[in-house]
Every structure is written in C-alpha cells, then in structure tokens.
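Students often ask why we bother encoding 3D structure as a string. The short answer is that it lets us treat folding as translation between two languages. Here is a chain of 485 residues written in the first language.
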Amino acid sequence: MGWLERLTDLIVPRRATTHTWMILTFALFVGLAVLAVGLYVAFALRGETNEATREMLYGQAERIAIQIEQVESPEQQVEIAKDISRLTDLRITLVRGDSVLWEVDGSRLIQSDSIMEQPEMGVTPEDRVRFAARRNSEGRVMLYAALYRPSAGVVIRVGQPEPPLVELIQNMLIALVVGMAMALVLALLGSWVAAYQVTSPLQAIRNSARRIAEGDLGEKIKVDSRAAEFHELAMSLNRMSDSFRRQINELQRLTQLQNEFIGNVGHEVRNPIFAVSGYLEALGSGTLSPEMRKRYAEKGLTNLHRLQNLFNDLIEIARLEYREDLIKPSTFDLAELVEEVGDILRPKAEHKGISLELENPELYVHADRNRIRQVVTNLIDNAIAYTDDGTIRCRFRRRLKKVRVEVIDTGRGIPEDHLERIFERFYRVDPDRSRRSGGTGLGLSIVHQILLAHGEQIHVESTVARGSRFWFELPFADVPASEPA
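And here it is in the second language, the structure alphabet:
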C-alpha cells in the first residue's frame, strides 16, 4: 500500500494551491470524458460499424448461395455466379472440393493459385461463415465472406471493396479522437487561465491580509479582476480593516486615557491623603498650641472635602457614562435656572472683583433641569477660577428649534493646543493654579458627559489674554399651559 499512497500523493497532492487543485479538477473531469468517448469510439462504435458491414456482406453471400443451390450442374452454377458478378460488380468465387470452379470480379476472370490459401477458405460446416479483410494489389481494402453449402457441395466466397461510408466513418472516428484530444488540451489551458483569474485576486487579498496582520493597518486590499464578487469581497475586507483600525486606534486611545486616568487618580488621591496623614500626625504631638491645632484640623478637613469631592465627581462621571436613564427631561425656564446658579456663585465672583451678567428673558427648554444646572454651575465656576478681573456673562438665545447657551469670560484664555483636551478627565491648563483653587480637574469632563447624555455637544473657542467662550444647545420648548404667557 505504500507505493499506492505515494503514487496518489504524486498525482493528487494532499496540500496544494487552489490554482493546482482547479487544474487537477478540470483535468480529471475532462480527461474522464475524453477517455470515455475515446473508448466508445475505439471499441463500441468501431465494432458496431464492422458488425454492420459483415451483416451486409453475409446477406449478399446468402442470397447468392440460394440462387446457386437451385441448379445442380457446375456449368449452370458458374453461369449464375458470372451473371450476378457482372450485375453487382462483386467478386464471386466458387470452389468445389480443392478445385476452383470460377472466380470473377465483375466481368474480369481471375486466375490465382493462392485462393485456397486464404484464411476464409477454410470454412467448415460447423463455421457456417468466415469473414476476412485485406488489401488487394491496388491498395484497396477488400471484405470477404465465405459460406459452405453442403447441399450444393460448394464454398461460395463473396468479396467487395470496403464501402465509402465505412471509410467515411473511420475518418470521422479519427477526427473525433483528435478533436477530443485537442479538447483536453484546450480544457487544460482554459482551466489554467480560469484558475489564474480566480487565484490571482485571492493571492492579492492574502498578501494584503498578511501585511495587515503584521501591523500595516493602512494597507488597502486592491484586486485586479473584472469579477464583481472579488471587488465586493475586497470592499468588504477593506471596510472590515477600517473598522478594525478604528477600533484598535480607539482601544489604544482608551488605553492611554486609562493609564493617564489611573495615574491622575493616584496622584490626586495621594496628595490629600498624604496631607491629611501629615496633619493628623502633627495633631498627635503634644507641643502644639490650640491655634495650631485648630489650623491643622481645618487644613485636614479641607483636604478631606477635596478628596470627597474627587470621589463624588468620579462616581458622577461613571454613572453618566453607563446609566443613560439618569437623564430625566422636563420643561423648565432657563432664565430662572441661571439666576439660581448666580445666587450661589455671585459671592465667589464678587470676592475676586468679577462682575456676573446673568439677565436673560424667559425661555423654556426641554432637558434634565438638575443636570443642566450642574453644567451651568461648572462652566461659570470654571470661568471664575480662570478670570482675575472683568466680566462673566451667561446668555442664551433661540436658534430655530434649539436654544444656544453661552458662558463668556474675559479671563486669561486657553492656548489653542489645549482646546482639544480640556474636556478630558484631570486635564488642567494650569495645574498649580487649579489645585490651589481646590478643583478636582473633572468639572469640564462632567459637563461633557451630561451633554452627551442629552445628545448634545459642548463647544469652546478661546484667545489667550482675551477670554473664552463655551456654548451648547438644548431643545426649545413652548411655555407650559399652567404658566402665564
């Protein structure tokens, strides 16, 4: 069995390219078809033709024998043979015993000593008939049928040239075999071309996919083929690659943000904890005066409040990111909400000599009132923290079906290279000043998450030393029926 397996592996390899498999498949099926037709032509059809020719020759010999048997004298038998040969252009031979009575080809009498040596002349009563085919002196194929007639005591042999139809059939058979062989060659050639047209785009796709797998995410799969399926496959793979690339970039960005977030959280938490720990150790000393104890206790409480605010803000961001149902919209007066925020933050602004301008006409929006108050509070508080003098305004106006809310300050402004990152967690344009003011670095990030939960975006534009402008939009709402117009 070892040699058989090796032969099978040689003819049909266990692992081969698609190009090879397609050619082998074409060769197998077309080759089997050619082989089947060739065998039928070589054996079945040729045998049927020969059999039909023999039957025809036998029938002629049988009819001649019947006529000869009707007379008894050899002279009459010869005359009958002579007449039939002249009329039919057949070669008729009469033999009695070892003597040739007559042999004539049409009207030509033949004298030959080799007649009795021909194989068909050895016919016996048991054989009934013998056939033979050979070429004559002129190169033509002659067909012979010899019958032994016991009643007449003679052997009757009938010969005729091979019919033109038989020769035509033979030529057709040869042409058919040659045509099938050419069909096999053309099929192999066509299979090679078809396989190349199929495998060439696949190889291009494979090579591109390999480069993408190796990290070349910018690689585009290009297919040089007229087949629509390959173009659609390449487009689908390119879309999939683009999607993977975006996801990978997003994962890398999130990983970077996560690392920064962990580092920032650790840093922001570590400082208050170290401060509280230091103040507690100092309070444990018996040498402090009551004033110093009070001072250290106040500083410790301040850091604890800062730590508490930090954790509250982190929990708030997490809830906004993973719980969209925390947003509960309602219709409310935006001017009233801004006044509430102003009442809370105006003392802080006046302490820095900053003027708050919050007067606006009555205008209703549809949003979560508590969350929007949180947004406005964070924006105005952030403006106060980064404005040393001047004015802070919160104004809004209707724009079609939206209401645009703006918070404008005359503070120090934000450098352009910081604008894209100010809504990231713990990102500070001026870290030292923010920490001195007690901020957690999460205010603008919370604003961003609240507005995202509302399906809106926060925008900013700023000029260094001239101030900043933050704005967002909310859905406009009509005045409620219970409110006076």
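Translate back mentally: The chain has a mean pLDDT of 78. Keep this in mind for the problem set.
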